[in-house]
User: Fold these one by one.
Assistant:
Number 1:
Amino acid sequence: MQMNRSKPLFLASSSPRRAKLLADMGFDFQTLPADACSIDETPQENESAWILVERLARSKAAMALSKADLPDGSVVLAGDTVVIHQGRIFGKPVDECEAAAMLSALSGQTHAVVTAITVADHLRCASVIVQTDVTMMSLGEAQIAAYLSTGEPLGKAGAYALQGMAARFVERICGSWGAVVGLPQCETAQLLAEFGIHPVWLQTQRDSIHE
């Protein structure tokens, strides 16, 4: 991929969903290997979901900037997403048993999905946090078991993928669809613009105006 003419952009995330959303928006970027932004994601004692996701997103960006051999002027984008319900933080389930417990807890309830996006270079770092409320239909044990058998819940915050088969379980969304998937598009574009990075289609127009 041809890089942005102004600054090279790197995605510090192994999430294919974030990469697809960023590409669909028209941004030119490269995805860093998982080990370049791997951190301990264990919540700290009494840490709120909002503080947790921002801390993790910033830590991933900092890790990528320190470990990866990036060109001068590079900008890194990182993110983190958790589900919160009745004061409990649901990250990615470690196994099917935990995934089943998460889905049972979310069944027939409204929960919050909290996503933080961090954009950073070697001079500064900025973050945005987006909360979206999601209402899930009531799920029976058979439905949960069938969904678990697909393998989709593993590796997903809250044990479900809104962009996948679990879309049929969601009755209502109040907020950003992209934030639930892992990348709030509007807020991400605004944050990147602060660092001088724009989608290719917009950058091309801007360049032609200034020629």
Number 2:
Amino acid sequence: MTRVLVVDNHDSFVHTIVQYLRVLGADCDVRPRDVVDVRDADGFDGVLVSPGPGTPEAAGVSVPLVLRAAERGTPLLGVCLGHQAIAVAFGATVARAPELVHGRTSAVLHDGKGVFEGLPSPVMMTRYHSLAVLPETVPEVLDVTARTDDGVIMGLRHRRAPVEGIQFHPESVLSEHGHRLLLNWLRGIV
């Protein structure tokens, strides 16, 4: 059974993600970001950095944990705030989104690889965010894997490490193919 450390960034729906992962066969250990140390991830097959309020810089261990996972080759998925933590960890800037979007769906165009394998493009996903990664600041080590039709970055993937982020919420009932996306991530954990 795949063992996943879930870093809880104090999001009210982190347990929905955890339930989905468990249904898909993962053994999840949920720990609040204030009690996780970067070395805690070493004993797991994968790490999920959850959504939550605030900025990535204020998200406790999230940014250092992304760097640790990348260094050690530990598969990591960042969701919403976790996605933003990936961006910041590798030098991108996260700032106010062009539009504040909370509880609305958007068509997400993607590359069909990684977590997006087998999903239609565009795919409707639910967004809850006030911040976004600034496209002009994305470093060469990260590929933009998904965007909205108006250009807001919805996905990032590290070019060499098994680190991937999604800005939207696959666990939302309004998101299409959220289970499949999470299953793709779990299948990518070797």
Number 3:
Amino acid sequence: MGERPVEFSDRGGWWLAQRRPHPALRPFLRSYDGYWETEAVPTRMRTLPTRTAVMIINLGPPLLLTVPDAGEPDREYGSFVAGMHDGHGMYLSPGGQRGVQLDVTPLGAYTLLGVPLAHLTNAAVELSDLFGRSAHTLVERLAAAPSWSDRFDVLDAFLLRRLEAGPAPDPEVARAWRLLNGDPAVTVAGIAADVGWSRKHLTHRFREQAGLPPKVMARVIRFQRAIGLLTGGTGLADAASACGYYDQAHLSREFRALSGCTPRELIGGQLDQQRVTTLAEPA
């Protein structure tokens, strides 16, 4: 498994080691992202809703995480999975972080985690609560591995076993996911007609397996598209039009609802000043 090269990059206080996963896993995640901090500097970071569930395999000190709309105080997490979210959160790193991040498509997470993703909506769950003793074994093996290539080989083997044993999403749900990602103008009614289900049944099954109702997922996808355009220099009005917002005011309201910021605050300042993370997403 180790024939795929590991690429290293300096992110300004962070180092990143990346490698593509086994080909059988690539429909579900783009890369393994190993990271470590060169300085133990506490950092508060904003998290945004994305098209992925996030698995953090922590080889450093615990993180203090605020989960959107969870109704719970901040709590410490070691290795954990954050499910699909429709709001922003915060986490506090004490510095000296080291670990691996996996950004997994919702349907990939449904299979690899082996639980309905609706159970993880707007929530974070310790890896041990999902995988039991095998989570501790995984962390121990990653910590003991002599190189990042060896760590990624360990992850390949672990996830391939999960893939073989996990549930497959309904073909109709998989089709709905592709339609949502492919057409900014698609409607839930149009998707339901395409897959041959009622809107109610589609919403129920999609939320169970993908973590969010299709209408909410469409909001998140549109929000992420807008971030990409604005980060690339597109103006607010043009981004609003390209992403299917009614107008610029509609885009701004959605940014406040999903990120807690105006578009200019998020793109123009906080991306640099607070290291706001939007998390890499599989294509």
